[in-house]
Amino acid sequence: MLIFAASDKGGAGRTVTSANLAYHRAMAGDDVCYLDFDFGSPTAATVFEVADAREATDGRGLHAYLIGEVGEPAWIDVWAKTEHPVLRNPPPGCGRLVLMPGDVSGGEFATSDDNLRHCVDLLMKLYYEYDLVVVDLSAGRSYAVDMALEATAQPEMREITARWLVFHRWTHKHVAAAASLAFGVRGIIAGGVARGHDEEALRGAIRFVRAAVPDPESPLWSQVSPTQSAWMRKTDGDLRQLASAQGVGYSQVLGSVPLEPVLQWREQLITAEDVVDSQIANQETWQALSRLAGRLTDDKYWEQA
Amino acid sequence: MPSPSGPPTHSVLVCGEVRTCLLPSLQALDGRAAAQLLRLRADDHVRVSERPTMYALSPEVLTGVDCGLPAANGAKVRAVGTVAVRGALTEGRLLQSTAYVSLPAAGPDVRRPWGQYLVRPGLVEPLGKLPRQAVAEGVLRGAGRGELDLGMIAEGLLAQLRRHALLDRRVPFKSSPTRLRWVARREPEGGRASLVNFTVAEGGLRAMELLLPADVPAAAAAGLCEDLALHDWLLTTTQYMLDNSRLGAADGPSVVEVLHPVVVHLLHLWMPRAHVDPALGHLWDVLEDRPGFSRQWENLGRRIRDRLALQAVPRPYEALSRR
């Protein structure tokens, strides 16, 4: 299965959340490949803590591959190359976790026939090899999004299950922006239909992920004043209403990830050790990520509303 | 049409790369479909043999190159000529593509008209002298940017074949492709070919070094390497399914689910030497001796059958509860 991770804005938790999902799936035994299609600013290597390995592959990454400069994109075995002490010792029974990094020097580029061909060949090849392929797309209606839409519209990719996650933060601006990225005049669906996608099918393959969502009921806020508490509840309710009016409501949401300092500040993978041993990360975050990871392939969450 | 392997007398080095993967098709292809898939040229036939295993080999197509050669010592050697590329399908299930070239000890110092290269298919001539050892090591290490990249050429054909309209583009199970890079140094005529080295690196990469008498065509060496790559793929893939997958120490129907595709699609594919040139068949003995390819395969097969047999035995407590 292919998962495309999109967001309208940077800082919506797209990379860090989707990397954590890839990690959860690999721990559960899937072979997972993570593609960094964030052509302006590839950051996935930092999240997986393979910066040194990424540096060694610079100039041979996905960008160089797509524009035809190298025959194959470089890839990094995360378990073997990560500097994260816990990730270096994956438990037996877990699947492979492979990162295909972007190139630091590589900017955005228009989709030509040649690089579209390269993109389709790569996605098909990885689809035959991995249980799950996660593609992290540059923010906004970027060339990366165009290429993903164009590639999946090709006849040879029609049969392949491709799903889209649109990440957004839990604010007015982000909710509206996420809705516009999916449903707007220049959005994913409009762009997909223009390239030959079936509108209903594409709509059914898009779900939203709310990142950094503060939970007014959380013990974290138990000490706030009653006015603050009431205000938080009201604002949260307003946001829910806005989301549902914009078509980003409950039925279209795959899951939410709570506001989590570790994700916000460290932008790294949350391991079981972070939750259980050092307890720097919240149990709820771990569970939310775990649930989300499971729902990626659970058809129940992808049925038409 | 001269044989694409070219006049073997000229070359001092043959190198190539084989890519091996599962054919993206739920059903294995029969001989006719295999021939259709591998019909790379309208003017030449696909060779299909049904015994002892179904094996189809495409005609060779040529890729013109004018680029640097990979050299381990950093020497800059420009070379011009054509690379031979071919595809093969075994039991309608395993797809391979090979790109290979022969290199002479030296070539003219200036580039000649293209037509003169075309009459020597599969031969790439250096401008000046060929640093044989450095290039052999460079090929095994892998090409840098702008250098002759046989893997890229082989992958190009593989991608083309995987796109073929005949295929439903669905795989019965997920598996990783492998790459085998090989170099063969030419020895005087009449000698006996030998296997110098076979190494298994990470990421599905394999490297092999051969000594090849001048009278053995390069295509025969390519055939041997394809055969080894195929069996190495079978070992690698089956071993991974047994060791690293969700199988682990699992029990119950999940075991059958994981092992089912191995039994249905892979177990019967083991047939070393079946389509190898008789002049090179003995090279298999080296690998049979150590590490013992067939020994490992038999062991894997036994493990799979035992795991499946265990599933058929009622667990003790289940047997008790039925009393």
TrEMBL record, chain A:
<dbReference type="GO" id="GO:0003677">
    <property type="term" value="F:DNA binding"/>
</dbReference>
<dbReference type="InterPro" id="IPR027417">
    <property type="entry name" value="P-loop_NTPase"/>
</dbReference>
<dbReference type="GO" id="GO:0051782">
    <property type="term" value="P:negative regulation of cell division"/>
</dbReference>
<dbReference type="GO" id="GO:0009898">
    <property type="term" value="C:cytoplasmic side of plasma membrane"/>
</dbReference>
<dbReference type="GO" id="GO:0005524">
    <property type="term" value="F:ATP binding"/>
</dbReference>
<protein>
    <submittedName>
        <fullName>DNA-binding protein</fullName>
    </submittedName>
</protein>
<dbReference type="Pfam" id="PF01656">
    <property type="entry name" value="CbiA"/>
</dbReference>
<feature type="domain" description="CobQ/CobB/MinD/ParA nucleotide binding">
    <location>
        <begin position="3"/>
        <end position="51"/>
    </location>
</feature>
<keyword id="KW-0238">DNA-binding</keyword>
<dbReference type="InterPro" id="IPR002586">
    <property type="entry name" value="CobQ/CobB/MinD/ParA_Nub-bd_dom"/>
</dbReference>
<keyword id="KW-0547">Nucleotide-binding</keyword>
<dbReference type="GO" id="GO:0016887">
    <property type="term" value="F:ATP hydrolysis activity"/>
</dbReference>
<keyword id="KW-0067">ATP-binding</keyword>
<dbReference type="InterPro" id="IPR050625">
    <property type="entry name" value="ParA/MinD_ATPase"/>
</dbReference>
<dbReference type="GO" id="GO:0005829">
    <property type="term" value="C:cytosol"/>
</dbReference>
